[in-house]
Automatic annotation (TrEMBL):
TPR repeats: 487-520, 521-554, 555-588
Keywords: Membrane, TPR repeat, Transmembrane, Transmembrane helix
Calcium keyword on record: no
UniProt protein name: Amidase domain-containing protein
Lineage summary: Eukaryota, Viridiplantae, Streptophyta, Embryophyta, Tracheophyta
SUPFAM superfamilies listed in its UniProt record: Amidase signature (AS) enzymes, TPR-like
């Protein structure tokens, strides 16, 4: 520094020296200030789990004077996703370039004002996936909010910060938006309640759109009574409504996508409603076959050479239509801005945006037709008192910075497309843990039945949590093994039933054979083949696992397990099975074709 001062003294009359000195000093100040702000931001981030973009307070409207009743949300605090307008603040949409190129809002979003009018206090805006694209919750610009239950895993998105703020008990409830799962996924991953209302039921004025035909305002809470109170305000519901009977409809085929044992999901819910009044005996449906028969326009979105009635192909077609609709409307809404400003985007979001902008959309009318048919199909299935029960998401939260695979995305979107494409209301409900990960199920009912669904959650929640506790403390159901008496005869009867295309009968015979002799790989392998014909892919996979554990060179077991996993959209695992089959039998044509197709999908 002394050399610098001597240089200035020597050349004091030279104005260029003073300019250089000024710039140097200014640079030092800027660097110091940047470091100070980063340090402060890191401290704040540690305190709030990285959930908040911006902290501020919007004071609720004053309480009415007595004897008027207290405002329904009095004393509650909430946070909002950085997609809602707040007067005097720039809405960031999860991206600094968006925030930089847009003016501050001159009005506050209708939904935020409604909450303030009813006594709640807003304490800030939360982090989100850029442009509301993505379901992992990661943001390269502002960091990824920390999942309070699993700090090494993603919180889910795109409403990640709002979910984390609730899960970490920083607020009583929070607002998000849900396009293709942006409330439901983070609710599931963070172990809290997440509600997606019927499409159009809550005003989106003052909310940035991603895809207006799919966007819905959603909210998170830890307590079902708060979820219910917020719903009453936002949906402008009547305080009292006559109690109605209910019947649960389990989508058995969709639970095959989940890796959580049914003992912790379907069994828990079934036992919970046994103790409650007003619930009919649960029904069970093959949901994919139902929509394949009732949503004819899906045929236009089915993969070539795939029959809609096979496995979950109908749901894959629905998911494909949903993603196409989102991308088409996103392009319509934001293409001009993207081309004018060329924003910096994270790699995952950049891929989604490029796909949206570069695609040509030839089936636009069909997209909206699928949506209309899907809503009518759900009304037909559920009538006035039905509640569809499905897994919220197929897989546990991904590890941070791992990136989402095609497999993860496809399996997630298959389940998330049900409510998004029908416009029905859905609530994700936590059901404890499995292998250290939060698990959840979702209840879905027909469009416009939001109060009915909120009432159902409030009614069932305590009984559900009681059953969750009991299930977590109980041992898994044991396998039944027996002697070899008559097992071969039963196997032959099973084979005869299989050849006669009597799949259920074949399963029953093979099952009896397994009870007598549980160490014969052929029995499990044959039953797996029958399960595949029935579309029971999870059971087929389990039987193949057992067959392979008993006979590691069983080519048919690898082929059948690969087929089951492929049908469950577990592409990487299926690929490994077909590779293994080719090692054992290099000329196997089925394995060879499947291996080539899956290698393209995985890459």
């Amino acid at each position: 520094m002394s050399k610098t001062l001597n240089l200035i003294k020597t050349n004091a009359s030279n104005p260029k020296v003073w300019i250089v000195a000024g710039i140097t000093v200014a640079g030092i100040i800027v660097v110091a200030e940047t470091r100070r702000r980063r340090k402060k931001a890191m401290i704040i981030k540690r305190e709030d789990f990285g959930a908040f973009m911006e902290r501020f307070e919007l004071i609720p409207f004053p309480q009415p004077p007595p004897p008027a009743a207290e405002l329904p949300l009095s004393g509650l605090t909430f946070a909002i996703k950085d997609i809602f307008d707040v007067k005097g603040h720039a809405t960031g949409f999860g991206n600094p370039d968006w925030q930089r190129t847009h003016e501050v809002a001159d009005k506050t979003a209708v939904v935020v004002t409604a909450l303030l009018k009813n006594g709640a206090k807003c304490v800030g805006k939360t982090v989100m996936d850029e442009l509301a694209f993505g379901i992992t919750g990661e943001n390269k610009h502002y960091g990824t909010p920390t999942n309070p239950n699993m700090p090494s895993n993603v919180p889910g998105g795109s409403s990640s910060g709002s979910a984390v703020a609730v899960a970490a008990e920083l607020v009583d409830f929070a607002l998000g938006t849900d396009t293709i799962g942006c409330v439901r996924v983070p609710a599931s991953f963070c172990g809290i309640l997440g509600f997606r209302p019927s499409h159009g039921a809550v005003s989106t004025i003052g909310v940035l759109p991603n895809s207006q035909s799919l966007d819905a305002i959603g909210w998170f809470a830890r307590d079902p009574s708060i979820l219910h109170r917020v719903g009453n305000v936002l949906l402008q519901l009547k305080a009292v409504e006559p109690r109605r009977g209910r019947h649960l409809v389990f989508a058995d085929d969709l639970f095959q996508l989940s890796k959580v044992p049914k003992q912790k999901t379907v069994h828990v819910i079934s036992k919970a409603v046994e103790k409650l009044s007003g619930y009919q005996l649960p029904k069970h449906v093959n949901f994919c076959q139902f929509i394949a028969s009732n949503v004819p326009s899906l045929k236009g979105f089915c993969q070539h050479s795939t029959n809609l009635q096979n496995g979950i192909s109908a749901l894959q077609a629905l998911s494909s239509a949903m993603v196409s609709l989102q991308r088409y409307e996103f392009k319509t809404n934001h293409e001009e801005w993207l081309k004018d400003f060329k924003p910096r985007l994270g790699p995952e979001v950049s891929r989604c945006v490029l796909a949206a902008i570069n695609n040509t959309y030839e089936k636009v009318k069909s997209l909206y037709k699928v949506r209309t048919e899907m809503r009518a199909a759900m009304q037909s299935l559920l009538k006035d008192d039905g509640v569809l029960v499905i897994p919220t998401i197929a897989d546990p939260p991904l590890k941070l910075k791992k990136g989402s695979s095609t497999e993860f995305h496809d399996r997630a979107c298959a389940l998330l497309s049900v409510a998004s494409m029908s416009g029905c209301c859905q609530v994700s409900v936590p059901l404890g843990e499995h292998d250290g990960c939060p698990i959840s199920v979702s209840f879905v009912t027909y469009h416009g039945a939001d109060k009915f669904l909120l009432d159902t959650v409030l009614d069932m929640y305590a009984s559900l949590q009681e059953q969750v506790s009991m299930a977590s403390n109980s041992a898994p159901l044991p396998d039944l093994n027996g002697n070899m008496d008559a097992s071969e005869l039963l196997k032959e009867k099973g084979n005869a039933a299989f050849k006669g295309k009597q799949w259920n009968k074949a399963v029953n015979y093979y099952t009896e054979a397994i009870k007598l002799n549980g160490t014969n790989a052929t029995y499990y392998n044959n039953r797996a083949a029958a399960y595949l014909e029935l579309g029971c892919f999870q059971q087929a996979e389990e039987d193949c696992n057992k067959a392979i554990s008993l006979d590691k060179k069983n080519v048919k077991a690898y082929l059948r397990r690969g087929t089951a996993r492929d049908s469950l959209l577990c592409y990487k695992e299926a690929l490994e099975d077909f590779k293994h089959a080719l090692v054992l039998e290099p000329q196997n044509k089925v394995a060879n074709l499947a291996e080539k197709r899956l290698r393209k999908l995985v890459s």
